Fold:
Amino acid sequence: MKKLKLGFLFSVLFSFFLGTAVLAQQELPIALDGLAKSGSFSTSINLILSLGVITLIPFFLMSTTCFLRVIIVLSMIRQAIGTQQAPPNPVIISLSLFITVFVMSPTFDEVRQTALTPFQEGRITQKEALSLGIKPFQKFMLRFTREKDLGLFLEFSQVRYTGVKEDVPIFVLIPAFIISELKTAFQIGFLLFIPFVVIDLVVSNILLSLGMFMLSPALVSLPFKILLFVLTDGWNLVIHGLLMSYRGP
Structure:
């Protein structure tokens, strides 16, 4: 129940933040009556369908941006240090959101220039706007998707592959991108765990040699791990590494 509440809260915050950012850049009013221009359904049904699609936007953005890698790495840092709720979940989520917006700002800007602005000026249709708006996300995901992961979903989807990565359907590319990001995040997490595990082993051996069997090694090693992380300016190094991992070639 707690996880469901946290997921719902994050979805609301993510959609509100990105929606506010787009509106702040565009300075354009939202016209909901344009969503209901259909001859096959009533206005109420179209509005319900539109709101249902809008609720999926945060999950789409989480799956097609760098958010997955960032939040997994930051969560692993907290677990490696051994601090249970420091920093708390809202802080990790907020930091991940801002890093995601920072990294994805060129992609968002490209979507605005190629799809959103021409559509609102009436130069392209809604279908063309959706097609053009997906391409920047597709280009971003292709840069960080492993060929092995992409081949896995291409094989099971039975899609005829032409050899051009840009022609890969979005429903094939998104899951391939997700598992590629998960693998990369766990690789980074493994490297982050090593120095803290070494500290735990050293402290455990010292306590055993002193005969302090009843004293928890984690309790003694925690201050040393925090001290190591602070002295090495750990947050700066980790965020720098994350940003460098998304740096263009």
Observations:
- The chain has nine helices and no strands.
- Residues 65-245 form one domain.
- The two ends are 43 Å apart (CA to CA).
- The CA atoms of residues 142 and 165 lie 7 Å apart.
